[in-house]
């Protein structure tokens, strides 16, 4: 806005118009000018008061206008962030659906993993018509989605292990490099995380009312029969945020699918998930607030990639 000099006569005419419009309603321009000419000449003190009043009035109007604009901008910004988050969630679920169909078939009645993905879509408020459309497309385009583990090196040699599912690993690696390069991190061409983490295969079975877990002896016997190392019963937070009891059979990561099959086929238990857990053997102690902030930021960005299943790290922060 340019700082144009404002004359008193200009402000005087504006105030006259406002005063007359308030008292008599909107008047024609000629009528306003006629009344303005007939007003008495005011003193210099009065001029100053009128000028201050006019300027204050103008400033107040501008502040209200900018506040309204800022409010609208905030609404649009919040909606854009919400839409972006929803789209990222939807893309992740689409990839998970494609992978589930390749692994267990197209029928959600016999494919537990596919049924879980469909349930997650409903919880994410994806419309039924859109879910069906995504399902139909995934059935038609069941290409080779594969699981991979990638390694990122951060400050103080901190290690991040990413589990991803993708049908275009080269493009995904390029996307990850763009993220980590901005924060002076590197995506490893030759991962070494196997020396830094102990890997354990885990077969998870949901505890139903029919299963008696007060006595763990029967499940220990099952673990021995199928070749698992041990079995524990713990409360685990589900996708709905509720704590549920589960049985976890620990085994060699290379045997996890075989053991899961035997647990279901031979012993009639329903496997809800199979996974390889990573337990750090060497921790990276990080006490710099700047480094911690950078790592948290990068982890969030890596997790936001639609192909990311999870991100594991070996960072340890000292207690204050």
UniProtKB/TrEMBL annotation:
GO cellular component terms listed in the entry, alphabetical order: mitochondrion
Q: Which segments constitute the TACO1/YebC-like N-terminal domain?
A: 70-140
Tell me where on the tree of life, at the top rank, the source sits.
Answer: Eukaryota
Q: Which SUPFAM superfamilies match?
A: YebC-like
Cross-referenced InterPro entries, in alphabetical order? Answer: Integrase-like_N, TACO1_YebC-like_2nd/3rd_dom, TACO1_YebC_N, Transcrip_reg_TACO1-like, Transcrip_reg_TACO1-like_dom3, YebC-like
Domain (TACO1/YebC-like second and third): residue spans on this chain? 146-315
Pfam families xref list = TACO1_YebC_N (PF20772), Transcrip_reg (PF01709)
- Cross-referenced PANTHER family: TRANSLATIONAL ACTIVATOR OF CYTOCHROME C OXIDASE 1
What family is this? Belongs to the TACO1 family.
Q: What is this protein called?
A: Translational activator of cytochrome c oxidase 1
Source taxonomy:
Eukaryota, Metazoa, Spiralia, Lophotrochozoa, Mollusca
């Amino acid at each position: 806005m340019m700082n144009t000099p404002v004359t008193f006569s200009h402000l005087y005419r504006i105030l006259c118009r406002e005063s007359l419009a308030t008292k008599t309603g909107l008047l024609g321009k000629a009528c306003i000018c006629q009344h303005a000419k007939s007003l008495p000449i005011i003193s210099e003190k009065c001029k100053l008061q009128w000028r201050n009043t006019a300027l204050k009035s103008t400033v107040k109007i501008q502040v209200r206008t900018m506040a309204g604009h800022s409010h609208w901008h905030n609404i649009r910004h919040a909606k854009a962030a919400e839409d972006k988050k929803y789209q990222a969630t939807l893309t992740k679920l689409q990839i998970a659906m494609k992978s589930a169909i390749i692994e267990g078939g197209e029928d959600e009645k016999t494919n537990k993993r596919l049924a879980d993905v469909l349930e997650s879509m409903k919880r994410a408020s994806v419309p039924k018509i859109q879910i069906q459309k995504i399902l139909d497309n995934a059935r038609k385009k069941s290409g080779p989605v594969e699981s991979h583990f990638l390694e990122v090196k951060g400050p103080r040699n901190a290690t991040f292990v990413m589990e991803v599912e993708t049908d275009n690993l080269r493009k995904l690696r390029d996307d990850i490099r763009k993220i980590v390069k901005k924060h002076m991190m590197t995506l490893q061409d030759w991962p070494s995380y196997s020396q830094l983490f102990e890997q354990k295969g885990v077969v998870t079975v949901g505890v139903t009312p029919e299963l008696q877990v007060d006595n763990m002896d029967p499940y220990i016997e099952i673990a021995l029969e199928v070749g698992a190392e041990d079995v524990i019963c713990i409360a685990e937070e589900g996708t709905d945020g509720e704590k549920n009891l589960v049985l976890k059979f620990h085994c060699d990561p290379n045997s996890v699918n075989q053991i899961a099959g035997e647990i279901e086929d031979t012993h009639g238990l329903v496997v809800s998930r199979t996974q390889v857990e990573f337990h750090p053997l060497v921790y990276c102690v990080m006490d710099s607030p700047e480094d911690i902030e950078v790592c948290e930021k990068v982890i969030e960005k890596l997790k936001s990639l639609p192909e990311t299943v999870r991100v594991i790290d070996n960072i340890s922060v000292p207690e204050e």
